[in-house]
Specification:
The chain is mainly α and 406 residues long. The protein has a domain of 146 residues. 35% of the residues are buried.
């Protein structure tokens, strides 16, 4: 292995670990790694197919809607729109980068996916250790043991929103299941257990639902292998159930759901996330009924939502807060009308067709995580979600080697 190949490996690792760096370094590290591979591919005169570049532009077509919205947006809202444009630029740039260098360096990136798993585990271990220390070992604890306090602390400590780190954990589980972490079976079971416990502690519902569906599919495909290791699997399930029992946040989240369905005393919007979700859904649907054909533009959408939540707070004498649509499909639909939702769903269909044709299960699992999480979170409204979506969908879309089949 020569020095340039060693640099390739470290550049790939930087890209994987970059997802867990502080926000200001996250995009920088990932884009720098992309620029390195693109520059090296061009210097080595790697053949760049025009068809692949066109596909990259198609995959980034959602970003082009934001560019087209600039002249149609009132001056008062244009600064907000430009912020959204700058944030979503990676949706177009990353597919173009990957279309250029993935044919030559895709294998390097796939082999270093294990560092994404390691990044998840290290981040969660450090964050949970800090939380335990804060609650149990300080003279004057400033927080109680509740799922709200835990999630707030986790985000403040890591800079990662609970839903997004849950997506990362879910994908890390899939990387582990698909054999991209070269460890022994016992070590893999330990890592799998840790990832599941961290995911259950955060209890972001959509990524957890996605993982359950993925487990069913994986169990069906590997039913003979699962029977062979039934003792280890039974031990793993028992450990996870024990973790559910000893993690207090799980019972608290279940209590919110029970309260919503009337088995407990009704809760308030401000102290029950399920009631908050219902308010957000009703607000989004109310807007959609009025603007389902043309949308209102992304910047105006945020302003209209702010006004609606302000008036709700005043009328109910309660500080409700301000929320985006918390649904990627509704975000695009409310922003750009019918064309927005068609492009969003169409791109996901293109990815699913590619994943099924290539028989790439990890690609398919990634899409399941995204499609399900899109229904409860505006994933592409944050840098963490944009980079996660752009990097990994582009990686699998443009990589054609048979070693990606698992």
């Amino acid at each position: 292995m020569n020095k340039l190949e060693v640099i390739d490996i470290y550049a790939a690792r930087l890209m994987m670990i970059g997802f867990f760096l502080p926000m200001k370094w996250q995009a920088t590290s990932i884009i720098l790694a992309c620029i390195y591979f693109v520059t090296k591919a061009l210097l080595q005169r790697s053949q760049v197919q025009l068809q692949q570049i066109l596909w990259a532009v198609i995959l980034g077509s959602g970003f082009l809607l934001y560019i087209g919205a600039i002249p149609l947006t009132p001056v008062a809202d244009r600064s907000v729109l430009m912020l959204l444009v700058g944030r979503r630029m990676a949706l177009l740039l990353v597919p173009i980068f990957f279309a250029i260098f993935i044919p030559r360096y895709g294998g390097v990136l796939l082999r270093e996916l294990k560092f994404f798993v390691y990044g998840c585990i290290v981040t969660c271990i450090v964050a949970n250790a800090a939380f335990i220390y804060q609650v149990y070992f300080t003279l004057h604890p400033v927080m109680t043991i509740s799922h709200v306090a835990y999630r707030i602390f986790f985000e403040a400590f890591t800079g990662l929103h609970p839903t997004y780190i849950s997506m990362y954990l879910a994908f890390a589980i899939c990387i582990l299941l698909c054999g991209f972490v070269p460890l022994g079976k016992l070590s893999k079971f330990v890592l799998l257990y840790l990832l599941l416990i961290f995911l259950l502690a955060l209890l972001a519902k959509s990524p957890l639902i996605a993982v359950l569906i993925i487990f069913v599919h994986y169990a069906y495909l590997h039913r003979q292998l699962l029977f062979r290791y039934k003792i280890l699997i039974t031990t793993l399930l028992a450990a996870v159930l024990a973790g559910c029992f000893f993690i207090p946040f799980i019972g608290q989240r279940a209590g919110e759901v029970l309260s919503f369905f009337g088995t407990k005393a009704p809760g308030q919007i401000t102290d029950n996330s399920v009631y908050t979700r219902k308010l957000i859904w009703n607000t989004d649907i109310g807007l959609l009924k009025q603007y389902w054909q043309t949308g209102v533009g992304p910047a105006r959408l945020l302003r209209m939502l702010d006004y609606r939540y302000l008036f709700y707070s005043i009328s109910h004498n309660s500080a409700t807060g301000y929320y985006d649509p918390h649904n990627e499909y509704l975000w695009e639909w409310l922003s750009f009308g019918i064309i927005g939702i068609i492009i969003t769903v169409g791109l996901l269909v293109v990815h699913f067709i590619k994943a099924i044709k290539s028989k790439n299960h990890l690609y398919l699992y990634l899409l399941l995580i995204l499609v399900i999480t899109f229904s409860t979170e505006s994933v592409l409204s944050r840098q963490q979600g944009i980079l996660f979506y752009a990097v990994f969908t582009s990686m699998f879309f443009f990589y054609k080697n048979d070693s990606s089949k698992v």
